[in-house]
Design goal:
seven-stranded mixed β-sheet; alpha/beta
C-alpha cells in the first residue's frame, strides 16, 4: 500500500527550544523517502520518529545556514554505518558545495554507500522518476536558497458509469486500458485525466516569484512562517515570511493543505500562527507543525 506523508523532525528557526528541534522533514512518497533540511539533531529525531537511514533516497538542502544543514554530518555517517543498500542523492545550492563537502567529511568514518551529489545551479528539473519530477526554484534569502517541488505524473481515472453505458465489463476493461480502444470505444470515452499530486517545500525566503511558483496548485505546501505579522519588518530584513504572508501565498495558489513551520523562539503561543493564517483568508486544511508529528498528503 502506498504511503504519502510528511514526518516532521524539527520546527525551530535558528535557535532550538525545549520543545522544538532544528529543522528536519522526511517526505514519504510511496516507496521513496526525501529528507529535507537536516538541521542539528536530525539523527536523534529520526530515531524518535521511527525513521531509519534506509528510508532515505534523497536529501534536499535549501541553503547552508546551520539550522538547515548541520545535521548532514550525522545523517550521512548514519547512512554509511547502516550500509543503506540503495544509492542516495543529495541536492543543495551549488554555491555551497564547499559547505557540503566539509559536512560530508566532518570526521573520519568508513564510506560504504554511494552518495551522489547533484548540486542546484538554476531553476528547473533535478530528477525525473516514474513516481515524480523534482524541481527547484530560487528563493530570496541573504544566502543562496532554493525551494523544492514534487509533481506526480498525471494519470487516468476510469469512470464506471461510462463503462456501463458502453457495455464494457470484466476483462474487457483491462484490454481497453492496455490497448487504448475497444470496439470503437476509446479510453477517452470512459475516463478522465487525474491530475498528479503536488508537494512544495519552501524554507527561508522573503516573498518572491519562486515562492509563488512553488506553491501554485500544491496539494501540500510546507512553508516557513518564522515571524508573526506584527514583525513583518523583521521578516523582510532577515529574509523570512510571516504567518499571514505564507497563508496568503497558499490562498492565492489554491493550496489544499498548508503546513506552517520554522518558528522563531521569540513566540510562546504557536496557535497564534494559525489564527493569523486564517485571518489572511486561507480556508483549506491547516497544520501548525510540531516536532514528530505526521501529516498525510491529501488524497487525490
Amino acid at each position: 500500500m502506498s504511503v504519502r506523508e510528511l514526518v516532521v523532525l524539527g520546527t525551530a528557526s535558528q535557535v532550538p527550544t525545549r520543545h522544538r528541534n532544528h529543522n528536519g522533514y522526511l517526505l514519504r512518497w510511496d516507496g521513496q523517502g526525501i529528507l529535507f533540511d537536516p538541521g542539528e539533531g536530525t539523527q536523534r529525531q529520526m530515531l524518535r520518529a521511527g525513521v531509519a537511514a534506509h528510508d532515505i533516497d534523497r536529501i534536499c538542502v535549501t541553503h547552508f545556514h546551520g539550522d538547515h544543514s548541520l545535521g548532514l554530518a550525522g545523517v550521512i555517517q548514519r547512512i554509511n554505518l547502516d550500509q543503506v543498500p540503495h544509492p542516495v542523492t543529495a541536492h543543495y545550492p551549488a554555491s555551497g558545495r564547499h559547505f557540503f563537502e566539509r559536512l560530508r567529511y566532518a570526521t573520519a568514518y568508513r564510506e560504504t554507500v554511494r552518495l551522489a551529489e547533484a548540486p542546484v545551479a538554476a531553476d528547473g528539473p533535478l530528477a525525473v522518476t516514474d513516481a515524480y519530477t523534482l524541481d527547484a526554484c530560487l528563493l530570496s534569502h541573504p544566502v543562496e536558497s532554493y525551494g523544492y517541488r514534487l509533481t506526480e505524473p498525471d494519470g487516468r481515472r476510469i469512470l464506471p458509469e461510462r463503462l456501463a453505458a458502453h457495455g464494457i465489463e470484466g476483462p474487457d476493461i483491462g484490454r481497453l486500458q492496455r490497448e487504448g480502444a475497444l470496439g470503437g470505444v476509446t479510453l477517452d470515452d470512459v475516463s478522465e485525466i487525474r491530475r498528479g499530486q503536488r508537494f512544495a517545500f519552501v524554507m527561508d525566503t522573503r516573498l518572491c516569484d519562486g515562492v509563488h511558483a512553488l506553491a501554485e496548485g500544491a496539494d501540500m505546501l510546507v512553508i516557513e512562517s518564522t515571524f508573526l505579522d506584527e514583525d513583518v519588518r523583521l521578516a523582510t530584513d532577515h529574509g523570512h515570511l510571516t504567518a499571514g504572508q505564507a497563508a496568503a501565498v497558499a490562498r492565492d495558489a489554491g493550496v489544499r493543505h498548508l503546513v506552517l513551520t520554522h518558528f522563531s523562539q521569540r513566540y510562546s503561543d504557536p496557535a497564534e500562527f494559525g489564527r493569523q493564517a486564517r485571518a489572511a483568508g486561507f480556508d483549506g486544511e491547516l497544520s501548525i507543525a510540531q516536532d514528530l508529528m505526521r501529516v498525510p498528503v491529501p488524497k487525490r
